[in-house]
Each structure stands twice: as structure tokens, then as C-alpha cells.
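Before relying on records like the one below, remember that each one covers exactly one chain. Contacts with other chains, cofactors or solvent are not represented anywhere in the record.
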Amino acid sequence: MRHKEITKLKLACRLLALVCAAALVCAAADGDWPQFRGPSGSGVGNGTHTPVEWDAVKGTNILWTAEIPGLANSSPVVWGDRIFVTTAISSDPKQAFRTGLYGDTDSAADRSPHQWKVFALDKKTGKVLWEQLAYQGVPKTKRHPKSSQASPTPVTDGKVVVAYFGSEGLVAYSVEGKLLWKKDLGLQNAGWFFDPDSEWGAASSPVIYKNTVIVQCDRQKDSFVAAFDLKDGKEIWRTARAEIPAWGTPTLVPGNGKTELVTNATKAIRGYDADTGKELWTLGPNSEIACTTPVSANGLIFVSAGYPPVQPIYAIKIGSTGDLTLKDGKDSSDAIAWSKKSGGVYLPSPIVYGDHLYTVNNNGVMVAYEAKTGNRVYQQRVGTGVSFVASPIAAAGKLYAANEDGDVFVIKAGAQYELLAKNPIGEPILATPALAGDLLLVRGMKHLFAIAEAEKK
């Protein structure tokens, strides 16, 4: 009798985990892309005929182009017939990104008054449906030459749109553009911890869990992760973090009766109970600077970081607890399916698509691994050594990787590298693209491009 009860309990827990997973990724069934890197932060869309070839300069397979004022690294998000984007508009028209492969720690000269805005666009036409001014004034912190004053991507559940502007606050609107609430989270002075004057700007994007929005705020001191009520901005829970500045977006991972909130940062990779903020597990060592977003698939959580000398990749089993740090000389354990001491990537986040984990480094070197085992399948340079900042996304058997020069590479997914196309946008790309069904959205320095192949008759 006891055995039957235990079996029933296990089945119930598994069913609950599946229900939670479905709730977290339900937007994907409708072709929505609700947050940074889409449903559950996976980077994977559900389109079946996503574009392969286009040319924004010539207008080939470009459905529409919308000019977005200002400068931003934030990605577009999509729900239903609406696209939401954020931007920071400087009064200095010369503000721009400094692209290329370089390692400067200095901040950009970006001290002119700004306007921080949220836009809603019609998905079919690119027409601006509404715009709202969230904040205006001189930026409270400086930014990196590759960053912007609007780098975090907004998040939506189809009812509320939440934008995080770092030191300029957290703000929520209805999808119709009505201001719901604002929250000042304090000075988010994220930058080089050896020199506090080198400020690089916030980049971690908010995520929505149930009726809350969660933000990871890693800064020079008093770092924290916190959840706020979507309805009114009331703080639900806050957990202090013994962390220094980091820039990765947290990832929600359902399983084993609870949802884990996984964060990537310098002193430790951590998992929290998303309902309470209680720390569940920690893992190190990690890179001195952590920028990438964790991704989950096949019962594992993949975390990568690429700032030398520590450049790990970890495949963590969902539901682990305690200190997961591996013993000397070990690359796996009861909690770690596999790991690598080198090979982690710095800025573009990894992606799991099909049976493979793909990473793209800043210099365009792509590596494919067997996701379950960590065995390397191939290594191939994409392009000709130009810098990559945007994270790869995937759908319909294809991977999309955008470089700073404004080229988007379309690569066939699988165990062998095959470049399908190289497509120009005509302006620098630092924002991660988005997918809404078969519609590809690419944000350049000045425009948002909607790309779709013509229907075959």
C-alpha cells in the first residue's frame, strides 16, 4: 500500500511539472515571443517556414521596416498582433555603438539628457500604435561603448508590458499603453569592479512568473534578485546576493514540483525557488565577468561564461540542491551531467536545439555539442572574424546568428555545419533577433526589420 501511494505521488509530481512547463511556454503555441530569447528564454521559435534569404538594402523579403529613434540593445518582444520595443533617445544625435573586437573597459561619453521610451507596433505593418515616456533626464550611470541606456529587453504576458531601464527604474504598462506602476530599484551601477568609474550599464532583462515580474540586479554592492506583483508593483520577495556586477538574464526552469530561477554571475551560478526567492543551490567556479543567459532542455540547465581565464560550460540536472561545485579533477557528479573547464562563451548566450547545444563566441566561432553528453560535434567559424554580440535563435531546422557588421547567417541545424545564407541588414546589429511564427524580427542600430519569405503559390 505504501509503495502504491509513493508511485501515485511521483506520478502526480511529474504531471504537475508538465503542467508548469506548459504554462511557462504556452505563448510559443501562438507564435508569441514574450521575453528576451522568446518562450522560457530558450531562443527557439515554433515557425515552420522561417526565412532563409533576404536583403534589407534591396528590400527582398522585407515585409516592413520601422525606424526606432534612439539607441538600444534591447530585443523586440511579441504578443498577438503587437510588438513591443524600448529605447533611450539622447539629445546628442552623434550617440552610437562602437562595434568591433576590442576589450576596452572605459565608459562611453553618453552624458546628455535622454528620454526612455516604450513603443508598441502593429505586427503586420510596423505602424506605431502607441509610445510612452517612462523617464527623462541625464543618465544616472554611464554605459559601455557596446551597450546602451536601454539594453534590457521588455517582457509581456499579453496583458502587462514591463520594461526595466536599470537606474531609471522598472515600469509597467497595459498592452494598450496605460501606465500601471513605476518602481525605483536604486542605482544600478554595473561595471568593472576593479574600477567603479568604468560603468557599463544594466543589461539583465526581467522575466514574468505567474503574477510576478522578477529582476536580477547585480551591481557594485547590495546586489539582489526580487519579485514584484504584476498588478501594482508591490514587492513580493527579495533575496540579497553576495555578487558583483553581472549582465545575464535569469531563466525559469520548471520541474520536481517547483520552478527554479537560475542566475548566472561571477561568484556563483545559483538556483532559487521562484515562488519564495529561497536559494536552492550554488555552483562555481565561474568567469570573472558573466553576461550570458542560462538555457534549459532535456532535463538539464546549461550555463556558459567566457571571460578568461575561467570559461566553463555546465550541464546541471534540474532539481539539484546544495553546493554543486565539482570535486577536483571531476567533470560530472550526481548533480552535474557534464562540464567543461574551457569553451564557454562571453556575450552570445548558448542555445539548445534538437539534440545539440550550440555556442557562438564573440569572434564568430560556433561549436556544437551533444547536449546530453557534452561530446563536441563540430567547430566552425561563422563569417570572417567579425564581432558577435547578439545571441543565436532557432526555428524550422535553422539557426540564426547576427554579427555587429549587420549580417545575419542562417545555418542548418544538425551534426554537420552547413551555411544556408548570409543576409545583410545594412546597419550594425547588437540586439538579439526575435521570431513570431514565421516572421523574423531583426533590430539594427536605427530600424526594426520584419522579414518573411513570400508564400509559394
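The longest strand covers residues 128-137.
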